[in-house]
Write a structure and sequence with these properties.
- By secondary structure, this protein is an alpha/beta fold.
- It has two domains: about 200 residues, NAD(P)-binding Rossmann-like Domain (Rossmann fold, 3-Layer(aba) Sandwich); about 35 residues, no CATH class.
- About 45% of the residues lie in helices and about 15% in strands.
- The chain has a seven-stranded parallel beta sheet, sandwiched between helices.
- Helix 5 links the parallel strand 5 and strand 6.
- Helix 1 crosses helix 8, helix 4 packs parallel to helix 5 and helix 6 crosses helix 7.
- The two termini are about 30 Å apart.
């Protein structure tokens, strides 16, 4: 399927690995030039080099901490005029509600709510001016059903979801769509981190911790970055102009609900 976005330009945050990399690969396969961002320069340059070699698109890398003012300025300068924005950031650490102080919440909000909002505010005006744009925020299934040990993530991502719900309906008339993808557990470093925590807490090995989690998913497996990326690319395509302010679950059926 021709997604109709060949020659467009996208900023993909946190794209050196995991779900962000999956999105970058899928967009590059559709002929989209990329601005790729991550904190670690080495992993970022490796991922960018692989994408250039495989898909022949132009790739600019910006290694920075996008939660900082200087990082945001650097990234928005490199991404000026992009047609597509993929907001993504690693989730805050797990814990109990008694573990977190105000500063923990501030850090979570900075990474998973305020930074994506800042990038939208900085980059959507040019999309509106051109009459076309796509924004996809990678959030979490926890905005549908909270995950008790991920209270910081629950709070920050729910806040972003509320902002998107109103904003998406304001910019849609200008040909700009804003939507969220809600991943369940995928085969990424984040999954390894969470499963490692479970294995230590329950005194079981890592493979057993993963098997136990997989048993709770109707698909009986973890998702892959490739299928996640393909969904992201479709939401950025010429066919997705009537999808506005939606929260698309990719969780293998783990969220048990009729609607």
């Amino acid at each position: 399927m021709d997604l109709g976005i060949h020659g467009k330009r996208a900023l993909v945050c946190a794209s050196s690995r995991g779900l962000g990399l999956g999105c970058a690969e899928a967009l590059a396969e559709a002929g989209v030039d990329l601005v790729m961002n991550a904190r670690g320069a080495d992993a970022l340059d490796t991922a960018a080099g692989d994408i250039r070699a495989r898909f022949g698109v132009d790739v600019v890398t910006v290694a920075c901490d996008v939660t900082t003012d200087s990082g945001q300025a650097k990234l928005m300068d490199a991404a000026d005029g992009v047609d597509i924005l993929i907001n993504n950031a690693g989730g805050p650490p797990p814990g109990m509600w008694t573990d977190w102080a105000r500063e923990d919440f501030v850090q979570a909000l900075d990474a998973n709510m305020l930074t994506p909002i800042a990038l939208m505010q900085g980059l959507m005006p040019s999309m509106i001016e051109k009459g076309w744009g796509r924004v996809v925020n990678i959030t979490s299934q926890s905005v549908k059903a909270p995950i008790p040990v991920l209270g910081l993530s629950n709070a920050a991502r729910a806040g972003l979801t509320g902002f998107v719900a109103g904003t998406a309906r304001q910019v849609a008339q200008h040909g700009v769509t804003v939507n969220n993808i809600l991943p369940g557990i995928h085969d990424t470093d984040r999954a390894v981190s969470l499963d490692t925590g479970v294995s230590k807490a329950q005194n079981i090995d890592l493979a057993q911790a993963r098997a136990n989690r997989e048993a709770t998913i109707p698909a009986r497996r973890y998702g892959t970055r490739q299928e996640f990326g393909a969904t992201c690319a479709f939401l950025c395509s010429q066919f997705a102009g009537f999808i506005v302010g939606q929260n698309v679950l990719l969780d293998g059926g783990a969220h048990n609900a009729t609607l």
